Amino acid sequence: PTKEDRTHSYWKAIYLYAKSLIQDLGENFAQTDLNGTQNLWIIKPGGLSRGRNIKIFDNYPSICHYASIPF
Predict the structure, then answer these.
(1) Tell me, what DSSP letter sits at residue 56?
(2) Residue 63's Cα: distance from chain center in Å?
C-alpha cells in the first residue's frame, strides 16, 4: 500500500472508532444529548430560598455532583 492508502486507512479507523465511542456513550449514558456545548442550567434550591444560592451550570455531570446525585 502507498503512503496515501495508509493515511486514508488510518483516518478511516479513527473515524470508525470515534463513531463507535459516540454510539456507546449514547447507549450507556442517557443524558448524552443534554450535555451539549451551549447548554446552561439555572439550578435553584427549594424551600423558599428567595433567590439565594442560585447556581448556573453548563454541563450535566456538574449538576449531579452539586446535587449529590450518583452519575
Answers:
(1) E
(2) 12
